[in-house]
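Lab meeting notes turned into a lecture example. A postdoc, R.K., suggested we walk through two folding results consecutively so the class can see how the record format repeats. The first protein's sequence and structure tokens come next.
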Amino acid sequence: MTAAIPKVIHPDRVETLHHWKPATWEDYIAYRDDTTNERMRLFFNEKSLLVIDLSGEGIDHGSICNLFTMLFYIWFSQNPGQIFSSLGRCLLEKPQIKACAPDLVLYLGEDYPRWQEGEPRRIDLDRWRVPNLVGEIADTSLATDLDEKKHLYAELGIPEYWVVDVRGQRVFAFQLQENGEYKECTISLALSGLPISLLAQTLSRLKEETNGTAALWFAQQITNLKTE
């Protein structure tokens, strides 16, 4: 006889869970569909739920998240012909099994998710393929980003995963192997030929610069990459 999973939903309130807790898919749906939860990010992996309150994210998190979105744009502006769609923090669901809302979501090619009027505002992974790359901006969440979330994204079959360590000013990049596990890499697959070390160098410039000037520096560096 299987033991019952403790409920995480309280009938009179919805809690923010800062750690993974036992939960059912029905618990996850209760969080997802609660109209007071617009400032929360949800993660579900089979029988565990994580709820992140976005109001707790500070200036550094927002600055770096926007920086990496700019880096995507700059990279592809210098690599014309590659179709890309950046959908950071969109809710991705594998119904009944998994759900996540990565800070960075990148699709390459023409078969990227498109919303139709009347549909739920989330990406159904039974209908759409997984992204080519996802990433997390880790300010206070580095441990779970390198552990539980890493396993979640690997199990979804996402080819590349980045973890941006805000405090350590590092970028960890992983590529999915044939055995279904991530292995750390030094060159991006999704941004073909991009050294991961250049991302870390760009990140380190935020000590003295804005995310805008750091992005402009990155643009010059990748121009130099093409001429070397």
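The second example is placed directly after the first for contrast:
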Amino acid sequence: MPYIPGTNLGGRRVDLGALSLGAVDTAGVAWHLQELEGWDSPEVRSDYSEREADHGAWAAPVYLGQRPITLAGKIEAPDPASLDGAMEQLLAAASLTDTTLVVYETTPKQAVVRRSGKTLARPITDRIAAYSLLLTAADPRRYSTTLQAQSTGLPSVVGGLILPITPPLTIDTTVTGGGFTLANEGSIGTRPVFTITGPADQPVITCTQPDGTVIQLAYSGTLGVGDVLSIDCDAHTVSLSGVSRRRYLSALPYWPEIAPASTLSVQWFATSYDPAALLTGTCRSAWM
């Protein structure tokens, strides 16, 4: 049967890079998605040591492992040439390099995947084929498709005058800028990425969790005009214009993370004030 391009075929819709499964593409090819396995839960790494002369075991911390994902379904094409083109498109979409997989749930979520097994594309007729893809997300978290971004300049102080009259009249100081809040609506911790645009001399980022825990990222170097320092709190990398500067940054007592269903208050300062300096923080809510 002919399909109208752009039609949603019902059920779950998934995008693998530029390939949309569960919909009809511009060539009139219907990509039916009949199986989505592994999106519900990743592998788990756990270790238990039996108690000596006692019941039970000692439990070590439990971590999520990689997330294998299987996509399977059926391709219906209007003609043999379209089917051949669709099968080649499928093989290219299951890339050997990082590819974004988006699953359109009530809250759309995404993961970065790579091909991790043989891609099957088996013709059934000259217009219909069955397919199966095995992909793996090295990072098991399912992230929001919405990237949260907040920016602020260095804090500045205004006011603070004491006028020479009797009685003295004091005008209180007011600190403006220098902070923002990042939020995680998900069910597992997520790690932010910070970007500092210079000029900034020895900038320090202070992250405060709701329980009062303070985490500090201190950079001992100096950023010139137009320099961009990137701090990835998940990869634990620090780069300046693509060159590693990890040795110049101290993360105390550990790298910051935004707890599930929580927020992180972010402030920063440098040894001298410049109105052109800018701190940007980005993150995505994350789910198990």
